Amino acid sequence: MAILEILEYPDPRLRTLAKPVETVTDQHRQLIKDMFDTMYDAPGIGLAATQVNVHEQIIVMDLSEDKSEPRVFINPKLTILDGEKEKMQEGCLSVPGFYEDVERIEHCLIEAMDENGKAFELEATGLLAVCIQHEMDHLNGKLFVDYLSNMKRDRIRKKLEKQHRLAAKQA
Ligand code: QAP
Ligand code: CO
């Protein structure tokens, strides 16, 4: 079991563009295990490799309450199935303690590979659709705070910067 360090906003490394995985290797499978350990430990429902400073297109997710539905998405592609938008309150392990409404596409199709390199398709609505869009944003260097007003985003940034300064002094 390995808990990885999660980068926190406004760390510039969260802005890195993730590269597609060419071949899924044992090394990727080990990273995926560690990402699940890290996400469950937090606890969270979704984590992108970007957040643990690995810049490859890998996402882990589990929306269940009992760790019973682990999902892996490698090189995910999204197709909009319905133009409807839905607003949902989002949080992020890289923006701890802050939750805000974000509008996302309500109904989409995801094409991705699993941890064995096997391609699959998944039709997503509701929380699953929201979460996959949130995590795919991470792979593109984007955060949910980017959808907020400058004022709200600045307030969050300043509070986190202050926490980081205090934590650094403690160490
Ligand atoms: C993304 O986020 C998400 O602030 C996953 O103090 C969230 O797992 C998509 C977390 C909501 C859609 C809706 C956040 C844990 C976990 C915090 C997470 C915190 C501790 C966030
Ligand atoms: Co996030």
Explain the overall architecture.
There is one protein chain. The protein is of the alpha+beta class and 171 residues long. It has three helices and five strands. Strands 1-2-3-4-5 form a five-stranded antiparallel β-sheet. The longest helix has 21 residues, at 150-170. The protein is globular, with a radius of gyration of 16 Å. The two termini are 24 Å apart. The mean pLDDT is 98. 2-phenylethyl (2E)-3-(3,4-dihydroxyphenyl)prop-2-enoate (QAP) is lined by residues 42, 44-46, 88, 90-93, 96-97, 130-131, 134.
Summary?
The model has no long low-confidence stretch (mean pLDDT about 100). By secondary structure, this protein is α+β, with helices and mostly antiparallel strands. The chain has 3 helices and 5 strands.
Low-confidence stretches: none
Let me know the average pLDDT.
98
Shape field = globular
What's the multimeric state?
single chain
H-E string = HEEEEEHH
End-to-end C-alpha gap = 24 Å
**How many extended strands?**
5
Q: Sketch the major β-sheet.
A: 5 strands, antiparallel
Strands of the widest sheet, in order across it, are 1-2-3-4-5
Tell me which ligands are bound: 2-phenylethyl (2E)-3-(3,4-dihydroxyphenyl)prop-2-enoate, cobalt (II) ion
